Amino acid sequence: MDLFKSFGGKSNSKNVAKERLQLLLVHDRADVSPKLLELMKEEIMNVISNYVEIDEDGLNVEITKEKKRDDTLVPALHANIPIKKMKRNVR
Amino acid sequence: MSEVIVITSGKGGVGKTTTTANIGTYLSMKGFKTALVDTDIGLRNLDVVMGLENRIVYDLVDVVEGQCRLKQALIKDKRFDGLYLLPAAQTRDKTAVNPEQMRAITDELRQDFDYILIDCPAGIEQGFKNAIAGADKALVVTTPEVSAVRDADRIIGLLEASDVRDHMLIINRIKMDMVKRGDMMNIDDIMDILAIDLLGVIPDDENIVISTNKGEPIVVDEKSLAGQAYRNLTQRLIGEDVPLINLDINYGILDKLKNLFKISSSR
């Protein structure tokens, strides 16, 4: 929120640049190819479906950035796995 | 003790060659015997920036292939005592030289020179590998743009993975008016992102174009801001304690007020 932005006619594109760069570098540094991510996704799915029935269409696995407490960004593996129902008979 | 320093960036057009020419020239003005080596085989430009393009007889590939001795290929810059250029070949490509051969050349140059500056080609392929092969230290050049900083990060990663662990950053072509407007990343923004120490900052300066037009390094221009920045940067490189140049950061009252508001509103 820049108070002066509205009547100063000033943009703040450098913040956009910085944010884009930070996300970009999280990906670059993690060096995760789409192929590797796909492989990972499949294996995670295989393991989890031993225990729960998952909605495969709603599955989403991606590398994102996450803020640590000291405000530095670290790469994080984010998996959103919708569960249809639990398998009760697994032992 | 001589030092081999490679000037690299990943991205093209950020000012590697200009930086090599200016640091090298000022090192020789400070009394150091300095060799500039252009490793951009096929796209040589250091000779033109230095204004020595009409004096090339032999080049780097000729030396590697044994067509001439290293000393025959070195062009002496008559304007600056102790400054020499080893030009790249223009009609060959990067595969004409390999890293072992480059290391042999830099080792031979170490015997005669205090500083050997290697101008690296853009990219991360063979040309880059050749350029860093014999280097003790790397200077990574970037501009305050997303693409250039991204490539600098990649280069820093590759340098870490190779034997060149000693590296420093040069931020080139910073425009203070744009930084003040919030339309260009400032030094802190870039340093937040890259895991590297800062050697210096060069302001965007029209005089660079003029000096390149003439083939005279800007570092000899007493009046230009970029020339001063290159002199300071070079002094820091050789261990002198010089503060970062003041790039016209004379904020007015309005700017100070604005910063105050920005800080309080972001909390």
Automatic annotation (TrEMBL), chain A:
It comes from Thermoanaerobacterium butyriciformans. The lineage of its organism: Bacteria, Bacillati, Bacillota, Clostridia, Thermoanaerobacterales. It comes from the Bacteria. NCBIfam families: minE (TIGR01215), PRK00296.1 (NF001422). The gene is minE. Keywords: Cell cycle, Cell division. This is Cell division topological specificity factor. InterPro entries: MinE, MinE_sf. GO terms for biological process: cell division. Belongs to the MinE family. Pfam families: MinE (PF03776). Prevents the cell division inhibition by proteins MinC and MinD at internal division sites while permitting inhibition at polar sites. This ensures cell division at the proper site by restricting the formation of a division septum at the midpoint of the long axis of the cell.
From TrEMBL, chain B:
Keywords: ATP-binding, Cell cycle, Cell division, Nucleotide-binding, Septation. Pfam families: CbiA (PF01656). Residues 5-218 form the CobQ/CobB/MinD/ParA nucleotide binding domain. InterPro entries: CobQ/CobB/MinD/ParA_Nub-bd_dom, MinD, MinD_FleN, P-loop_NTPase, ParA/MinD_ATPase. Gene3D superfamilies: P-loop containing nucleotide triphosphate hydrolases (3.40.50.300). ATPase required for the correct placement of the division site. Cell division inhibitors MinC and MinD act in concert to form an inhibitor capable of blocking formation of the polar Z ring septums. Rapidly oscillates between the poles of the cell to destabilize FtsZ filaments that have formed before they mature into polar Z rings. Belongs to the ParA family. MinD subfamily. This is Septum site-determining protein MinD. It comes from Thermoanaerobacterium butyriciformans.
